[in-house]
Amino acid sequence: MSFTLTINDETSNKPMTINEPTIADIKKAIDILKQDEQNFLILDSSPPVELFSVIQAYFFDDNTFHAETRYDEGNALYMYSHELTEKDLTKILSNFISGIVPDIDDWEYEDDFGGYEFYKEFKLRKFLAENGFLALKVQNPPANSIQLTTSDIQVFIKIAKDSNVKTVFYSYDYVNKDIYNIDRVRHDNDLSKVASDEIVEYMKNINTHDFDQPAILELFFMNYGTIISMKIIDHWVEELTPANKFIDFLEMKYSEKLTEVKSDRYEQKDALLEELKTLLLNDSEFIYCTNRDLRRDFMRKFLIKPDNRKYVQAFLNDNGYLNQNELQNFVDMVYAVYKRMEKLNKLGVNKK
């Protein structure tokens, strides 16, 4: 058997791949994991060791690592996970390259995600008929069923046959494309600029798929009053990341950059506001705007002038829209400053 160790280091441009890794390579990889929670390693075996094909891990916290292992059984790929100390992770990876598989009795079951075929309707009916079942299509599958965790239709067929079932019901459903529409997820304009290339690539990938075709198949049968069901989702759906999770990922990835961008903008905003305040206090027309309506009309005309358009930037929210309330409050504040200065001048107080 052959082993490959892949190490993803966020500080490097591409993953590091080591064929036939040694224990020293494993220890070095774990040291890299501890440097950044975004780093991870993958140890592959070809062919699998006693059905186990992959062990992967990343640093969690407090000297703890999150590890996952996968084993292949037929066309099902079963995934289990566990939290490990550095010592235990080193031992498991070292044992694996020596042909010893991990003991996963205490590990948490994640999922099976095999290379299951998503049957089109005509193939499904043919397949069920060949296995001796009457296939009946329904509009809505029952909600109170016992759903199998597997997506392997062969397992479902075996259970149905063992239960002497004669009729299998099925239903197809579509994936809602809105789930992958970034425009429907609240995020600020800064993120759209900082991660523009990744957002464009994400939407380009989404648009390559046909959401007008059924992508979810649910099958069920009834056995002595109990409904047994299973669900198969077309593979391309499972490869997609919902827009809200993708935005969360980008916000975490670019958190430092976004903080920097916002900090710079706030500094620029303060400078613009101070400049605008001085302009308004010295404007002969502004001082006669004695009520909010007059000041609102004055600012509307003021900001559309070419020389004054830059001040609009100071009142845009994170999504790039003009915040009318913030603008109005600022103008009212400036007018209040003017009135106070006027009062002090009348009293003969020279206050800077």
Structure commentary:
The chain is an alpha+beta fold and 352 residues long. It has three domains: 2-112, no CATH class; 121-253, no CATH class; 255-346, no CATH class. The chain has helices spanning 23-33, 86-96, 121-130, 153-162, 189-194, 196-206, 235-238, 243-253, 255-281, 292-303, 324-346; strands at residues 2-8, 16-19, 40-49, 52-61, 64-73, 76-85, 108-112, 134-137, 146-147, 167-173, 216-223, 226-233. The strands form two sheets. A seven-stranded antiparallel beta sheet has the order 2-1-3-4-5-6-7. Strands 8-10-11-12-9 form a five-stranded mixed beta sheet. Helix 1 runs antiparallel to helix 2. The radius of gyration is 31 Å and the shape is elongated. The protein starts with a strand and ends in a 6-residue tail after the last helix. The model has no long low-confidence stretch (mean pLDDT 88).
